[in-house]
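Quick start: read one record
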Amino acid sequence: LAHTWGTAEIVEVYKCLYEELKGRVDNNIGATDEERYRLLWRNLRPYYNDTIMDYLENKCKARIVFDEANYLHWKELNPQEPYRSLALKLLSNPAIGRLEYWIGLFPDALKTYSIDGVIEFDHRGCRHLNSTSQILKDELRKIDIPFLLLDGDCIDEKDYSGAQIMVRIDSFLKTLELETRGCKRDTKNKLINIQ
């Protein structure tokens, strides 16, 4: 959708999405009936198949409730100052800005979306993001948020091994299970200890 910004057609697409989401929120209709884990997805996903997403969401009941690539990081644009607004939008992009600003966004997202764990798909073409993976992992470790790093390419499947990725996801989810055992979610999706 990023390549359609500024077109008349995208206004209709976003309006349709907004109305659908608003209707679901107004009628308290969740995305699914069952949810075991809430995940934050960092970087892009493999576009050549939906194996990972299908496995996570349908088999494992792990919901991706925050996708960093689609995070609206900019403030409202001013139509009276279009060039200045667009420049500020680009400069506020956490992926190309100062690392401290970018890392600083995570605590709010983790809290707002009640995140249990973070998965990063380390797309080989995103070296500027990949170089920060260990720093992010260290920061998340300080606040006891599990982190899974998956290597791959989002558009070239030659080096993709679904079986290896599923084993790594299973291991990660086992970690989440151990950390959330004896807990349940309250009405705001926060984990509470019931032991």
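The beta strands are 37-42, 62-67, 117-123, 147-152, 183-185, 191-193.
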